[in-house]
Design brief:
The complex is a heterodimer of chains A (308) and B (277).
Chain A: H1 2-6, H2 8-50, H3 67-73, H4 76-107, H5 114-126, H6 129-139, H7 146-153, H8 169-197, H9 201-209, H10 214-242, H11 246-251, H12 263-273, H13 277-285, H14 288-307
Helix pairs in contact in A: 2-13, 4-8, 4-10, 5-8, 8-10, 10-14, 12-13
Chain B: H1 3-34, H2 55-63, H3 66-97, H4 100-113, H5 118-132, H6 139-145, H7 147-163, H8 167-175, H9 180-191, H10 193-209, H11 212-217, H12 226-233, E1 235-236, E2 239-240, H13 242-273
Antiparallel strand pairs in B: 1-2
Helix pairs in contact in B: 1-13, 2-13, 3-4, 3-6, 3-7, 3-10, 3-12, 4-7, 7-10, 7-13, 8-9, 10-13
Chain lengths: 308, 277
């Protein structure tokens, strides 16, 4: 009794802290439950299904071990899909980084007309991609492509032998990469912009004082400071490009001759169209290593950002 | 204008204008195509000269399920926004105020679930929706599943916004006899209104954008959402009504772009604030 009476304040504080902890737990629980049920459970289910021969119409199937995985690894279409996913992601995101970096640097300081130009640059991100991708289906039309029309005027292609944007393997891959870059550039630009704006002006002044200008200042001062935020944007772009199926699904659906087949479209065709749920789940699970790598990368950079 | 300013302007316009033209041109061409008579779109002699008509817009509204799909998308969007706010606001607040390691780790963990893509989960979920919940081809299936990605996203944004509200404000309310929960409802949520609106806008647009679940769960034309109805139903056989399709793309894109632009700065503050503050 005496001890408690001697430390009423400490006890009160601890009491309040406990109550705050309970309140916090209460506030977070619904979110954790919802996510656990709708992300955790299906994820486990996906892993389970990938080891079975489940088909459309049944959730269970015979246990087949790693058969689905090994069958896919020996499948030419699947190997192609892995390679195309890699190309699709790396090339489109490399373009995005360069263009968004340039745009962000040009947009960071005020100039007349900036609002309007930023609005136009944002359009591809704000419009629903499932819809705008259909727009590109029209821009790539073999008979009436507006791109072909421009290139003809510039004498870059001939009228008698116009490019078949989505009909030949090489052109089809370039076409879907272009659309993916087009839709990701605005997002990367605004996040890069936030990274540059977060650099305090004193740093700029100090760098100028020490005689750092132009590229040297960019390389030694601006770049390291904006890198953490920029990396988050880049990792996001990689994840959403490698795991999204809208652009390839709508524009080529994996064709011609599987030349633009990526993991997601192949999983959809196998799991939904062909009804081999087990195999489809196995294909989709090949995305997990990539996700894990990106998550580790993000945690690493989040911690570095915290230190600075 | 000094030489340095002139050089900077030259760089700014030299970079921004060409890329704005490249990024924005598809929308110009959509608008042009949507105003052409349907039979004229393939005519190579009339690429830019034609008599504009709104016939395709009329066709879209009167002879297709377009308005129905917009209604479906809005219904699902509103329901998901309500669920998301109810779950994410309290969680975001708690995570912003939980000091130290625990709050941070939990916040990052929840955010990372946002990275688990629909393309990984749609197969098991399609089975669950069909066999256990009997919600195949019902909008309810989308209302139930969409919060799986909107909640982590919204918690992350809310966390960023709540961190910018000084703790002292709540302490003052507690002093005045408010309960902790009372302080939350009466002080914290009202000041965070701009942040909450940002979450509403971006959650809604995530829902309108969603494609993979919608095409997997919904099978009948009347229950389609915008993003699935346009690519599947506006194509009659192998015939594309291109002007109509272009109109169908432009109509939702323009208002979405305007609200995006209006809330962009807040979005960035929340998005990067959750991680770097």
């Amino acid at each position: 009794m005496g001890v408690v009476a001697a430390q009423p304040r400490a006890r009160k504080l601890r009491y309040a802290a406990e109550r705050q902890g309970t309140l916090a737990a209460l506030l977070i629980t619904p979110a954790v439950l919802f996510i656990g049920l709708l992300v955790g459970v299906p994820l486990v289910l996906a892993v389970y299904l990938s080891f079975t021969d489940a088909t459309a119409g049944s959730l269970s199937g015979k246990w087949v071990g790693i058969h689905n995985f090994s069958a896919q690894l020996h499948d030419a279409t699947f190997r192609g899909a892995l390679w195309h996913t890699f190309l699709f992601t790396v090339i489109s995101q490399a373009v995005v980084i360069v263009v968004a970096g340039l745009l962000a640097h040009a947009l960071v300081r005020k100039f007349p007309g900036r609002w309007l130009l930023r609005f136009v640059i944002l359009l591809p991100w704000a419009a629903p991609i499932a819809l705008t991708a259909i727009g590109f289906l029209w821009f790539y039309d073999p008979q009436a492509s507006i791109f072909t029309w421009f290139l003809e005027r510039l004498h870059l292609v001939s009228r008698t032998n116009p490019p078949n944007w989505l009909g030949t393997p090489r052109a089809a891959m370039s076409s879907i990469i272009t659309v993916q870059a087009w839709r990701t550039i605005p997002f990367a630009t605004v996040i890069f912009l936030a990274g540059i704006s977060s650099i305090p002006e004193e740093v700029d002044d100090a760098a100028a004082m020490d005689g750092a200008t132009g590229l040297r200042k960019f390389w030694h001062v601006s770049l390291p400071l904006q890198l953490p935020i920029a990396l988050v944007a880049i990792l996001f772009g990689i994840v959403f490009t490698a795991t999204d199926m809208v652009v390839p699904y709508i524009l080529t659906n994996g064709g011609p001759f599987n030349s633009t087949q990526v993991l997601t479209t192949w999983a959809f065709q196998t799991g939904i169209n062909a009804g081999n749920v087990g195999e489809g789940a196995a294909i989709a699970l090949f995305m997990l290593p990539l996700l894990a790598a990106v998550v580790i990368g993000m945690l690493f950079f989040a911690r570095r950002a915290e230190v600075t | 204008m000094t030489g340095a300013v002139l050089r900077r302007r030259l760089f700014q316009y030299g970079v921004v204008v060409p890329f704005a033209v490249l990024l924005g041109f598809p929308f110009v061409w959509m608008a042009v195509t949507s105003l052409k008579p349907e039979f004229q779109v393939y005519d190579p002699t009339k690429v830019w000269s034609f008599h504009p008509t709104l016939a395709s817009y009329g066709f879209l509204f009167h002879h297709t399920g377009y308005l129905r799909w917009i209604r479906n998308s809005c219904l699902v969007g509103l329901a998901v926004v309500v669920i998301t706010l109810a779950v994410a606001m309290p969680a975001g607040y708690a995570l912003a105020r939980l000091a130290g390691r625990v709050g941070r780790t939990l916040g990052v963990a929840i955010f990372l679930t946002y990275l688990v893509p629909p393309t990984l989960l749609f197969l098991p979920l399609s089975r669950v929706v069909a066999q256990y919940l009997h919600l195949s081809d019902r909008l309810w299936s989308l209302i139930l599943v969409y919060p799986s990605f909107t909640i982590p996203f919204a918690i992350w944004l809310m966390m960023g916004f709540f961190k910018t509200i000084p703790q002292e404000l709540e302490d003052a309310a507690l002093m005045d006899g408010c309960s902790r929960f009372g302080a939350l409802v009466r002080i914290v949520f009202p000041i965070s209104l701009p942040g909450i609106l940002t979450v509403v806008i971006f959650t809604f647009s995530l829902v309108v954008n969603e494609f993979v679940y919608a095409i997997t769960f919904i099978s009948s034309s009347t229950n389609r959402t915008l993003t699935v109805g346009v690519p599947t139903d506006l194509i009659r056989g192998d015939l594309f009504n291109w002007p109509g399709i272009m109109a169908a793309i432009l109509i939702p894109s323009i208002p979405l772009a305007l609200v995006y632009n209006a809330f962009l700065n807040r979005f960035i503050a929340g998005f990067t604030g959750g991680a770097f503050r």
